[in-house]
Amino acid sequence: MKAMLNLKKVIVVIDPHSESQPGLQKVLQLAKFMDFDLKLIACEYTQYLVEGYYFNAVDVLGLRNEYLEERKVMLEALAEPLRANGLVVETEAFWAHPGHETIVAEVESFQADLVVHHTRRHGAILRMFLTNDDWQLVRYCQVPLLLVKENLWKETPAILAAVDPMHSRHKPDGLDHKILRVAGDVAERVQGDVFAVHSHSQIPLSGTYPDQAKKEHREAFENLMKDFDIPTVRQHLLEEAPEFALRQLERDLSIDVVVMGAISRNILSDVFIGNTTEKVLDYLESDVLVIKPGDFKTRLTP
Fold first, then answer.
1. What is 9-291's CATH number?
2. C-beta atoms surrounding 230 within 10 Å
């Protein structure tokens, strides 16, 4: 079977204001098993260096270039140990506002196969309005997006594929199949174990969950899993909201990476992303690898 995560070029988004760079740590773990070129980028913007804020146009341009040059030096310092480990590494600092637009454009320019981005917990206002780069990259990044936390992967990483075979996009070679193939591919490459989960919940009717709905979810999940060589003991069907089911399995199975899909087509689906992915990213300790449908095309305007 053709590899679903065929990495040739990877972008790591560096936060110059952070003491730790977990994205680089994860890339080094991947580099033990895969051969790819790397680009470290920093997206910078400060109101202090906006024309008309304190300086005239000539002064602000020179100061901005000096500022970016300092960031370039910092990126080069991060790149040197990677090069010493045999990686081919480029670096570039951008004046970028909003940052996600520059990242998406750089994916096209660099022809990246993966973007690695450090994510943290977010306040309620940021979550509600999808105003930070995490959410915007979930919406717009056209290649797999690895949102990383601080924890390092175990020696034998546990990869969890989160699927929804009841979704309208569930079909042969659809999003669920892609999620499972990517999860299996990652697990094979990093010499880890792959698990699968489908979670479902419904408002009870007369105090009981409808038996027919349970049956439909079970049959849909079992039919999906027939196409994959994942042991039954690693297949999990849970009657729980997705964010709670994933948290439960993450703890029970010591999951390192959750592979899940994201669909963004209009305002309503963006609300879904803001609701579900927000909970997953903010409450899981594991990394999240976001996969898009095969027909996804980025759009940077609502």
1. 3.40.50.12370
2. 18
